[in-house]
Specification:
The complex is a heterodimer. Chain A is mostly helical. Chain A is built from 8 helices and no strands. The longest helix of chain A is centred in the N-terminal third of the chain and has 38 residues. Chain A is globular. By secondary structure, chain B is mainly α. Chain B is built from 8 helices and no strands. Chain B starts with a helix and ends with a helix. The chains are: A mainly alpha, B mainly alpha. The interface between A and B is large, with 106 and 103 residues.
């Protein structure tokens, strides 16, 4: 599906530009945005290096183990395929905690570690059930503090920059719960087929 | 709300403090572990690079060609009928695809309509309440070399649709 969407975005764009006389803009966009993507990736190095460094210490100092014990009951129910004492559970919990506090930059490297652990469990290049549940939680963006949005609102002199925190939390709860239900629905649908 | 802001600025330094104190108590080699973990970060960033280039270029082709604008103009009358403000549509469509583009649009909408307008509040809620599905899937699956995503994209996009619709309903209810 991702192959189809990706190719179609470019194909539709180029064909549309042919009839719209925007070929010059498209041409410019191709090279400029490729450069932009590289800059973005390079920029990620600083955050990834720092957080993976800190998380490596946290892991060896036994912090993830503490978190795992604390929240184990909930996560075990959400991820029935991961053994209870597996390190993946600890990474998943740290990722969820980081996301909740709006630390998207910290959440990503930890989340990738969780994915690595889950890949070791499944051992294929096909997404496992646990991976999809995990990413459903991540894409629905559970958060308490939308820091960037609050910062933008302050820049434009909002009377109350944080007034949208309430509506944001309500929306994020609904979308996260929906994501869990939709994930379950498609999982059971995929088992019926077999 | 002041408390939440304080918590969010304190949490990272405090987390580092706890980790390093714990490392000293447990007598683990903190600096060596930091460097070891950091090396993985460099590798990770480079493995992400081709995924990001591919995705960002495709999105920009679509945007610069004017195809996205045309599509929005085409569907806006229908959306108006069911009470969705057409001004929010570009943001709603781009939100699951590109985080930076969505943030740009949110900023633009807040600048144009004002942060305390209906559109301004709606854009803020929409931007804050959900994450960029395509980016999350690209980065996470890409970093560990998963090639078959199965139903992951469907789950993410359907949840986004629900998030967008409920943000409109909730903002209407809360702010009238």
């Amino acid at each position: 599906m991702i192959n189809l969407i990706w190719a179609c975005m470019a194909i539709i764009g180029i064909v549309f530009a042919m009839f719209n006389g925007k070929m010059e803009e498209v041409n410019k966009a191709i090279f400029e945005s490729a450069g932009e993507a590289v800059t973005l990736s390079i920029g990620l190095i600083s955050i990834l290096v720092f957080w993976l460094g800190i998380m490596k210490i946290a892991e060896n100092a036994g912090l993830l183990l503490v978190l795992t014990k604390l929240f184990r009951p909930i996560v075990v129910r959400l991820f029935p395929e991961i053994p209870k004492d597996h390190p993946a559970i600890g990474y998943i919990l740290s990722n969820i905690t980081a996301n909740l506090f709006g630390l998207g930059n910290a959440a990503t490297p930890i989340g990738i570690k969780a994915m690595e652990q889950m890949k070791q469990l499944s051992g294929t290049d096909t997404a496992s059930r646990s991976m999809i549940t995990f990413l459903a939680l991540n894409t629905s963006g559970l958060t308490i503090v939308p820091t960037t949005v609050i910062a933008i609102r302050m820049q434009y002199h909002s009377v109350s920059p944080t007034e949208i925190v309430g509506t944001t939390i309500m929306t994020t709860c609904i979308s996260t719960l929906s994501a869990i239900f939709i994930d379950r629905f498609y999982y059971y649908k995929s088992t019926w087929r077999k | 709300m002041g408390m939440i802001t304080t918590i969010s600025t304190w949490i990272i330094p405090c987390f580092i403090l706890i980790v390093l104190s714990l490392a000293l108590v447990k007598k683990v080699p903190a600096y060596e572990l930091f460097v070891e973990g950091g090396k993985e970060g460099v590798k990770m960033a480079f493995s992400l690079l081709p995924f990001l280039v591919g995705m960002i270029v495709a999105i920009n082709i679509l945007r610069s060609s004017g195809a996205m604008e045309a599509f929005i103009q085409f569907i806006s009358p229908a959306l108006h009928l069911i009470g969705i403000p057409p001004d929010i549509i570009p943001l709603a469509l781009i939100r699951p695809i590109s985080g930076t583009a969505a943030l740009g649009m949110t900023t633009e909408l807040i600048a144009t309509f004002g942060p305390d307008s209906f559109i301004g509040r709606l854009a803020s809620t929409m931007q804050g309440s959900t994450d960029t599905t395509l980016y999350v899937l690209t980065v996470y699956f890409g970093a560990v070399g998963i090639k078959k995503m199965r139903y992951a994209l469907k789950v993410g996009l359907l949840a986004d649709l629900i998030a967008i619709l409920s943000s409109i309903i909730i903002v209407k209810m809360v702010f009238g």
